[in-house]
Amino acid sequence: MGELAKPRLYTLVVNEGSGGGRSGRELPKVARGLRDRLPTAEVQVITSCSWTDAEKLIRTAALSARPGDAVLVMGGDGMAHLGLNACAGTDATLGIIPAGTGNDFARGVGVPKDLPRAVDAICVGATRRVDLSHVSNEAYPSRYVGAVLSTGYDARVNRATNDISLRFGSLSYGWIALRELIHFSPLQYRIRIDGVLRIQEAMIVAVCNTGMFGGGMQISPQADPADGMLDVTIVDPVSRSTLLRLLPQMYSGNFARHPAVQQFRAREVEIAGDGLFCMGDGEELGDVPVTVTAAPGALKVFVDAAHSAAATVKQ
Ligand SMILES: Nc1ncnc2c1ncn2[C@@H]1O[C@H](COP(=O)(O)OP(=O)(O)OP(=O)(O)O)[C@@H](O)[C@H]1O
Q1: Domain 143-297 belongs to what topology?
Q2: The DAGKc domain covers which part of the protein (predicted)?
Q3: Domain spanning 9-125: which CATH class is it, in words?
Q4: Which end of the chain is more exposed for a tag (fewer CB within 10 A), N or C?
């Protein structure tokens, strides 16, 4: 007698602390939804106890995935970052249950914001291939970023927000942005965009695959995660008060119209400069020099079927 075909395996790795504990609170409903809607599949739910643990669990699931299996992460951009790094170049399709505070990558590729709808998208099986940014520096010789790699004022605010939220939890991004601005002056950059060298001072240099960071701030309103290209946003030196006025305009995308904001599309970007460091998908990724290369179609991800004509429904 032939071996019975194994059921599809959906491995869900959860950071229960994401989104200020929302992830843990919503987990029972999400797990029940997946099991009810995928009766012929095996749904495994694993709770991670740390970043390192989550990375190991997600990577193991992705490496052992057979075609048709899925690796699901429940949390914010940090968990999505681990998921996309584990799934890129494997047989696993990534599913994101966006239960974090930011969820910028999920939003940028077309994962529904609403948790029951995100579960629904996974169960329906609508998938899409999206690009990633391949990042290489001394700390991370080979890493993918799904949303935005930032290196300037934005990176400093991001790092400070991560540090402080660990201790106090509720201090707002706006307060930290103001505090960082008081001491901030333009940074000296050497940027090579598809081979063309620019030596300049800048407030912000961000390399984007999807267009948002910081929980919905549109650093690159035009970015398309399926165009095979990177989008680079440079904010030239401006006064502190101008930068302060520009920041809220990122929520509408209007900031990109300011004359100090330059945007480029490229396949490869190299960034160097004294004292600069990288934040990717909200996580600290070491110092520059860094090379960022477009990785077209590197990831298969579950999305809202209605979101994109590029989505294909298979089940
Ligand atoms: N069990 C855990 N699994 C994974 N990460 C954890 C865990 N406990 C704490 N962390 C920390 O949580 C952060 C990742 O959280 P995640 O991105 O999932 O949610 P968030 O921070 O609420 O949302 P966002 O990143 O979208 O703002 C990491 O910085 C990591 O160090």
Answers
A1: Tumour Suppressor Smad4 (2.60.200)
A2: 5-139
A3: alpha beta
A4: N
Q: How far is the CA of 246 from the centre of ligand 1 (A)?
A: 28
Domain edges within the chain: 9-125, 143-297
**In angstroms, what is the span from residue 16 Cα to ligand 1's centroid?**
9
- The fraction of the chain above a pLDDT of 70, given in percent, is 93
- Ligand 1 pocket test, pick from 16, 18, 105 with the greatest ligand atom count within 8 Å of Cβ, gives 18
85 pLDDT above the threshold of 80: yes
- The distance from CA 145 to its chain's CA centroid, rounded to whole angstroms, is 6
Please tell me the pTM assigned to this model. Answer: 0.94
Give the helix, strand, coil percentages of the chain, each rounded to 5: 30, 35, 35
Q: What is the 3-state secondary structure (H, E, C) of 70-82?
A: EEEEEECHHHHHH
* Terminal C-alpha separation, the chain: 27
